[in-house]
């Protein structure tokens, strides 16, 4: 039987260790579906007596169940968690910052390999999330639809023939779907092209955010690109539109990398190895500097400058060096200065492990 400890101890979720298509640039693909129970008040205005039955229902019907290859769903109630534990789950993208702020009658139902997370009584009754490594939006959509059907066998969803799925926020009405990809775009960032592209992408009905979604910054040149429109388009159309933009970004990032190699290969190699030196030798490092250096090192691995280091190091250390994880690892609350010391030490240890 899996326990909460599993989710807490490993920085990389098991599914993230697998290689996916174009995973040198696309770190992950995600489908998120917003769903609500029919005839039950939505969480944002619900009373406790409305929400408790939903949590009890999930505990009875879905805890410890399996769906296809996703085994042993664990129900993790928010009111059982310490603030640091909630933060770790946010840093792993298993729950949203909004769910972490809830406590009574809110929970997450998480599969053993952490590829599926169903947030319960967040903004909507259900936020169903399914991740795939690399660029696999179509596969993620297919599997998320199957998961949705599996849940719907036991749940009567709030649905309107004209408007589609009814949600707490009008921007989710219709399909209730957010499709997104997490992309590492260092060359486009270095050549300043990414700043020109973001407004153009926004005009296509897509939105570009940082690593932790709305309101977060693009740490380590990692950008999340997702659809904004959920009404008036089918799930397949939304995914197709997002895929075509992502394909263009992949091509442009590859071209930018080639151009940098041709025009200033030695300077690029120097930048990569300086960043590698900082990570390998620092005794104190802030999260922004760590993210920048990790982005450079990951680019250096992808371009073949740095050998014998797994390209998962970016994904892993971006999570492992976040405040929640550092404190979970230390088993104590740390001041910002202590976190900077602990972060440097952890990165040094991790790089040393790779070289053994």
From TrEMBL:
Domain Phosphagen kinase C-terminal: 25-256
Protein residues bound to ATP: 28-32, 93, 127, 178-182, 209-214
Inhibition and activation profile: Appears to be allosterically activated by the binding of pArg-containing polypeptides to the pArg-binding pocket localized in the C-terminal domain of McsB.
Single GO BP term: phosphocreatine biosynthetic process
Protein's recorded name: Protein-arginine kinase
Top-tier EC class: transferase
Keyword Nucleotide-binding: yes
Motif RDXXRA motif of the pArg binding pocket involved in allosteric regulation per UniProt: ranges: 339-344
Entries under HAMAP family matching the protein: Prot_Arg_kinase (MF_00602)
Known EC number: 2.7.14.1
PROSITE patterns per UniProt: PHOSPHAGEN_KINASE, PHOSPHAGEN_KINASE_C
Database matches in SUPFAM superfamilies: Glutamine synthetase/guanido kinase
Function recorded in the entry: Catalyzes the specific phosphorylation of arginine residues in a large number of proteins. Is part of the bacterial stress response system. Protein arginine phosphorylation has a physiologically important role and is involved in the regulation of many critical cellular processes, such as protein homeostasis, motility, competence, and stringent and stress responses, by regulating gene expression and protein activity.
Family statement drawn from the similarity comment of this UniProt entry: Belongs to the ATP:guanido phosphotransferase family.
Gene Ontology CC entries for this record: extracellular space
């Amino acid at each position: 039987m899996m326990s909460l400890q599993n989710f807490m101890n490993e920085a990389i979720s098991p599914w993230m260790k697998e290689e996916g298509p174009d995973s040198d640039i696309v770190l992950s693909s995600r489908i998120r579906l917003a769903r609500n129970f029919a005839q039950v008040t939505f969480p944002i205005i619900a009373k406790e007596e409305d929400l408790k039955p939903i949590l009890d229902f999930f505990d009875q019907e879905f805890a410890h169940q399996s769906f296809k290859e996703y085994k042993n769903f664990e129900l993790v109630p928010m009111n059982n968690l310490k603030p640091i534990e909630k933060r770790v789950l946010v840093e792993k993208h298993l729950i949203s910052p909004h769910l972490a702020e809830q406590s009574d009658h809110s929970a997450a139902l998480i599969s053993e390999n952490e590829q599926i997370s169903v947030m319960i009584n967040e903004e909507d009754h259900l936020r169903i999330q399914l991740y795939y490594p690399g660029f696999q939006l179509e596969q993620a959509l297919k599997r998320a639809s199957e998961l949705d059907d599996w849940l719907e066998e036991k749940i009567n969803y709030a649905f309107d023939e004209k408007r589609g799925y009814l949600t707490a926020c009008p921007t989710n009405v219709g399909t209730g779907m957010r499709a997104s990809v997490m992309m590492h775009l260092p060359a486009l960032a270095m050549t300043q092209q990414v700043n020109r592209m973001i407004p153009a992408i926004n005009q296509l009905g897509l939105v570009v955010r940082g690593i932790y979604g709305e309101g977060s910054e693009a740490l380590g040149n990692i950008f999340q690109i997702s659809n904004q429109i959920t009404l008036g388009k089918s799930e397949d159309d939304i995914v197709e539109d997002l895929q075509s933009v992502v394909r263009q970004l992949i091509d442009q990032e590859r071209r930018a990398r080639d151009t940098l190699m041709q025009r200033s290969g030695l300077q690029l190699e120097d930048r990569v190895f300086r960043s590698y030196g900082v990570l390998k030798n620092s005794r104190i490092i802030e999260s922004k500097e760590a993210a920048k250096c990790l982005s450079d090192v990951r680019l250096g691995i992808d371009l073949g400058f740095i050998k014998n280091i797994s390209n998962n190091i970016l994904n892993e250390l971006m999570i492992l060096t976040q405040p929640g994880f550092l404190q979970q690892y230390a088993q104590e609350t740390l001041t910002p200065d202590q976190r900077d010391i602990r972060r440097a030490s952890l990165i040094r240890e991790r790089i040393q492990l790779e070289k053994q």
